[in-house]
Specification:
2 domains; 14 strands; L-amino peptidase D-ALA esterase/amidase; 391 residues; Ubiquitin-like (UB roll); five-stranded mixed beta sheet
């Protein structure tokens, strides 16, 4: 998937990246901040083991006045007890001091290995050095921040859009432990549009519902999931409905990037369920297909095995309104159920499934609702990445 990364931030934002000792080499810490007061909205994981970064950020985000985000890569700072809580608070305090703003206006994201304490001496040294550099420390581009956020990602994820006189720029990371129960992974969105906190929150929740909450790599929900949007108003007011549409489009762009870079992935898998009784049913059935290891491995092998798709639909045993005789299944534009394609069509179907993006479309014959979810194939590479993750 080719992608044009935005090269600058919206007006009034600046960023810093650097090496804070979280990984062996390369940038592993980032800060994006507004030079002026801002309004914000945020959503977080519902995991019972939410990390100290999420707990602290949830409290800071409640005021809807965030104006800075800092991210620590390679270490989730989860299951680290009281020490982890103190370290997260110290980091936000140091970022706030660096920017000259209250600590309560800083959101912190921490992502990576669970159960390891942060290397605080190295991080303190990094912040001291950044403070000594002053404004010169804040020259990072969106691509620099996206790279500094990466853990097992193979490529950075950014996206940019215009809306009226304003711009929106997003950065994200995450390729595994992705089965959202609010949003997914870490995703931060920055805009110079002027919006009310209520309009910003409504736009974010609608966008997340249609994009990040329709993404799954491996059915596992992270302890650190965070998505936030900060609007500083530097470009002036925009139409809230137009902004909401642009934000949803940008989030869909990031969702597709995340899905196609799933751990060990070679293909983007898109599953659409249409003619469902309601949107919730459409999403449940689509998720059962995109999450099926047998479907995912068939996609990896370019094997048009629609029997596995029927299996994945059929295991939704609570969906008693689904009747097999009403169901249709297409791989791309080719219907494979209930009418079995001929040998010539099967050969072409296998060729289509070798493409970088594979579409499976299911009709339930129950109503007019639809949903599309995003995932990836399942390869031996996924096992290798996660078998060797901490060693």
């Amino acid at each position: 998937m080719t992608h044009n990364h935005p090269t600058t931030w919206p007006a009034g934002f600046r960023a810093h990246t650097g090496h804070g000792g979280l990984r062996g080499s390369g940038d592993d810490i980032s800060i994006v901040a507004s030079d002026r007061p801002a309004v914000s909205a945020a959503m977080f994981t519902r995991s019972l083991f939410a990390g100290p970064a999420v707990v602290l950020s949830r409290a800071h985000a409640a005021g809807q006045r965030l104006r800075a985000v800092t991210t620590l890569a390679q270490n989730a700072n989860v299951a680290t007890g009281r020490r982890g809580e103190e370290n997260a608070a110290e980091i936000t305090g140091r970022v706030a001091a660096l920017l000259g703003i209250p600590a309560g206006e800083v959101l912190i994201g921490s992502t990576g290995v669970i159960g390891r304490p942060l290397p605080m001496d190295a991080l303190r040294a990094h912040f001291d050095e950044a403070a000594g550099r002053g404004p010169a420390a804040f020259g990072a581009r969106p691509l620099d921040v996206a790279r500094a956020m990466m853990t097992t990602d193979t490529r950075p994820k950014t996206a940019g859009r215009a809306v009226g006189p304003a711009r929106v720029v997003g950065v994200a990371k995450g390729v595994g432990m992705l089965e959202p129960d609010m949003a997914t992974m870490l995703a931060y969105l920055f805009t110079d549009a002027a919006l009310s906190p209520a309009d910003l929150d409504a736009a974010l929740r609608a966008a997340v519902d249609r994009t990040f909450n329709c993404l799954s790599v491996d059915t596992d929900t992270s302890t650190s999931d965070t998505v936030a949007v900060i609007a500083n108003g530097a470009a002036g007011p925009v139409d809230p409905d137009a902004f909401a549409a642009v934000l949803a489009d940008l989030c869909l762009d990031l969702t597709r990037q995340l899905a196609s870079d799933g751990e060990g992935a070679t293909k983007l898998l898109r599953v659409t369920v249409e003619r469902a009784a309601d949107p919730a049913q459409a999403r449940r059935v689509a998720k059962s297909v995109v999450n099926s290891p047998l479907v995912k491995t068939a996609v990896h092998g370019a094997d048009p095995n629609w029997g596995r798709v029927l299996m994945a639909i059929g295991k939704n045993t609570d969906e008693t309104t689904i009747v097999p005789g009403r169901v249709t299944v297409r791989f791309g534009a080719v219907e494979v159920y209930p009418d079995e394609p001929g040998p010539d069509t099967l050969a072409g179907l296998a060729a289509a499934m070798r493409q970088d993006e594979v579409d499976i479309v299911i009709g339930l014959g129950l109503g007019q609702a639809a949903a599309t979810v995003y995932g990836c194939d399942l390869s031996a590479g996924y096992v290798r990445v996660n078998a060797d993750y901490t060693t």
